[in-house]
């Protein structure tokens, strides 16, 4: 897992797969954000632009992937992201190749707040729980999740 601010993207030039994802997402602002999918390269990189309200923990779930790396960039709003080791979670939905996801339930081991301008990277096999509201109030969220082909990380 990586957690950093988009203003530090130059530090990741040595990781072309990550730098490319950050470059593709960097121009998007709250004003230019539009929900939907942007295909940069249909086999290696696409951006899911998501707009939703943050939720209670009971409405969230852990997920991990096998084929794609997730790069979450918050455009506006904020949410808590939880993390735990795969071995400490219970699988609730076996791997779905079409959606590239395994779903889990369990406790949050570590967590952090993702605010506007910050990004988090989850490699294949790193369970993460997203969309969790900070405190008592739900807030509108605009977030991009870049999906990067996991095989690129080994290049």
UniProtKB/TrEMBL annotation:
Signal sequence region: none
Pfam hit, one: DUF386
Provide the Gene Ontology terms for cellular component.
cytosol
Q: Which InterPro entries match?
A: NanQ/TabA/YiaL, NanQ/TabA/YiaL_sf
Q: Give the domain of life.
A: Bacteria
Name of the featured protein = YhcH/YjgK/YiaL family protein
User: Species name for this entry?
Assistant: Endozoicomonas elysicola
């Amino acid at each position: 897992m990586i957690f950093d601010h988009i203003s530090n993207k130059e530090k990741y030039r040595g990781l072309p797969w990550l730098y490319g994802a950050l470059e593709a997402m960097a121009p998007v602002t709250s004003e230019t954000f539009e929900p939907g999918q942007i295909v940069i390269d249909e086999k290696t990189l696409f951006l899911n632009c998501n707009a939703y309200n943050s939720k209670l923990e009971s409405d969230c779930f852990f997920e991990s992937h096998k084929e794609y790396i997730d790069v979450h960039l918050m455009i506006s709003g904020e949410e808590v992201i939880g993390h735990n080791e795969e071995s400490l979670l219970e699988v609730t939905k076996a791997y779905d190749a079409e959606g590239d996801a395994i779903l889990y339930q369990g406790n949050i081991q570590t967590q952090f707040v993702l605010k506007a301008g910050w990004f988090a990277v989850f490699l294949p096999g790193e369970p993460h729980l997203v969309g969790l509201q900070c405190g008592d109030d739900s807030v509108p969220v605009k977030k991009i999740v870049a999906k990067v082909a996991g095989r690129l990380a080994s290049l």
